[in-house]
Write a structure and sequence with these properties.
Elements: E1 2-8, H1 14-30, E2 36-42, H2 59-68, E3 83-87, E4 90-92, H3 109-120, E5 126-133, H4 148-160, E6 163-166, H5 169-177, E7 183-184, H6 192-195, E8 205-208, H7 225-239, E9 245-248, H8 252-261, E10 266-268, H9 273-280, E11 283-288, H10 291-299, E12 304-308, E13 323-325, H11 331-342, H12 348-367
Parallel strand pairs: 1-2, 1-3, 3-5, 4-5, 5-6, 6-7, 8-9, 8-11, 9-10, 11-12, 12-13
Helix pairs in contact: 1-10, 7-11
Bound molecules: zinc ion.
Residues 94, 102, 147, 149-150 line the site of zinc ion.
């Protein structure tokens, strides 16, 4: 049996669940004749690396408790792992322009890697898979040039990982600038459905996802919040004459936002990420702010377009989907995209099939280091 531990989130963001399930599928394919045991660590509360402490999710308090408790008194998902995986997330971010956050300061690297993994690093491979950036939309990666702390973090991470694959071209560029050469492979979330054997079903509705301002953060950009809400509202009114539309909401905030678009809108929300995969299996196409929602729609061979405000949205390029900066997503653009999606998005099923095959082979090639 091989014990594989994931640095991920748990019951926090279904996008992270999709990414991790995709990697689980790829690892199960790689180790067909071996029993695999998967452990998941909620990285926002690193004490979750200790077996039995999964309930403890208050970061500040648990950080303190984790620091004072000796490692030897609990069973530990990092210390006992045969393989450790950083499971697809932004790993590189650096925001000196707004005195914002830096990746060197993330909550998991010190407790999980420096305190724990370094003890087993000589015999346990650490895989950094589907790593991405989270920068301003127009970033060229130069923020990292003058940030020694983020550079040191990246160098240390690179020195410890057996393999790194990235999910967006900006991540590749940032690593290249520092002398590291990595492959861009579409985010592993496109394999999530295969982890559960969920097949495409008859398309029943158009999926819409609305986040205020188009994404999680602003990073000092002048985001036109009201304009995006109004454009989406008018667009929704027009297309809902012809289409059954469902607002797919990855959290309660998005339910409240969708109700601002139409109080009586069809809304989908669940506390089980498998329900989302089944929901996306019946989607005709999507107009989305949630990136991993669009990736799940694509995984069923159906197209989507993405509206976003940071570098994460550019992951869409790797699976052949259009994307746009939120301030530019006006009504004309939305209606053009609607026609494009309705007409099959340049034969998306066939295009995606090729993308999927190549991504599968590229991941297996990356995993061949094991
Ligand atoms: Zn930095």
């Amino acid at each position: 049996m091989l014990k594989i531990s994931f640095i991920t989130t748990v019951n926090h963001n279904v996008g992270d669940d999709f990414v991790r399930e995709g990697i689980i599928y790829l690892l199960n394919q790689k180790f067909k004749d071996t029993v695999l045991n998967f452990d998941i660590i909620h990285k926002h509360s690193p004490i979750n690396a200790r077996q039995g402490f999964e309930w403890f999710r208050n970061y500040r308090l648990s950080k303190y408790v984790d620091q004072v408790l000796p490692l030897s008194i609990t069973k530990d998902k990092v210390l006992e792992a045969d393989i450790l995986v950083q499971s697809g997330a932004p790993v590189y971010w650096c925001h000196p322009e707004t005195h914002g956050p830096h990746c060197y300061n993330n909550e998991w690297f010190k407790p999980l890697i420096k305190r724990r993994y370094l003890k087993t690093a000589s015999k346990v491979p650490f895989l950094n898979l589907a790593a991405g950036t989270c920068q301003r939309y127009d970033s060229n990666g130069s923020e990292f040039d003058s940030c020694k702390s983020c550079q040191d973090y990246i160098k240390e991470l690179q020195s410890l990982t057996e393999v790194t694959t990235v999910r967006d071209k900006l991540a590749k560029k940032i690593l290249n600038n520092m002398g590291f050469f990595v492959s861009v492979i579409p985010c592993s979330s496109i394999f999530a459905r295969e982890s559960f054997g969920i097949e495409p079903e008859n398309p029943e509705y158009v999926a819409l996802n609305y986040m205020k301002g188009g994404a999680h953060y602003v990073f000092g950009q002048k985001i036109e919040f009201e304009k995006w809400e109004n454009n989406l509202k008018v667009f929704y009114k027009q297309i809902s004459k012809f289409e059954k539309c469902v607002f797919v909401c990855h959290n309660q905030d998005e339910v409240n936002n969708a109700k601002r678009i139409d109080f009586n809108a069809n809304i989908f929300i669940s506390n089980n990420y498998k329900d989302y995969i089944r929901f996306y299996a019946k989607t005709k196409f999507g107009i989305m702010n949630r990136i991993h929602g669009a990736f799940l729609i694509a995984s069923f061979g159906r197209p989507a377009v993405l509206v976003g405000n940071d570098s994460r949205v550019k992951m869409a390029e790797e699976i052949g989907l259009p994307y746009i900066f939120v301030n530019d997503a006006n009504l004309v653009w939305l209606l053009e995209q609607y026609e494009y999606l309705k007409n099959g998005a340049d034969n998306y099923p066939e295009r995606f099939n090729e993308i999927r095959k190549k991504a599968y082979n590229d991941y297996q090639k990356a995993l061949s280091v094991l």
